[in-house]
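re: ur question from earlier - yeah i can do the single chain one, its not a big deal. heres the input i used so u can compare w yours
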Amino acid sequence: MKQKAIICDIDGVLLDTEHIFERIETAQLTGRDKWDYFNRHANEHDVVADSRVIEILEAFSERGFRIIFLTARMNEIESETKAKIDASIGLYAEKIFPYLILTRPTKNVEPSNKVKEVWVELLREKYDIFCAIDDDPENCEMFAKQNILTMQVHKKRG
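and the output i got, formated as tokens:
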């Protein structure tokens, strides 16, 4: 029997990075310049975690679910991202819970939903995916098409 798993996005769900994307838009950065800027700032002190998401993931973890952070972040910032997640879990969870993080290969510039779809196919070999939590409508649509219960996060803006 496969272990049950929860898929959770990072940016816009676990971590608030909206202000970084606003700065990218203001500077009109595109292509590699956009992602280089994001990579430099994605784990800074002004990027804060949503304690509610951590509480939800902790509850699932306590019930034996594997927590999987499935992100379109590039693997070149994976270690910094893990450190940010670890610090965030340490701040808001009663117990530190284990997780798996899956990132985008550095040279891959496909849309997020395509990157995540490939990971979902691989994850299904080992896990029974219970649900996915994401903020991107295209990612949510992809999860739903894969018959995965999907929760789309909407954050209050402004």
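The CA atoms of residues 24 and 34 lie 6 Å apart. not sure if urs matches, ping me
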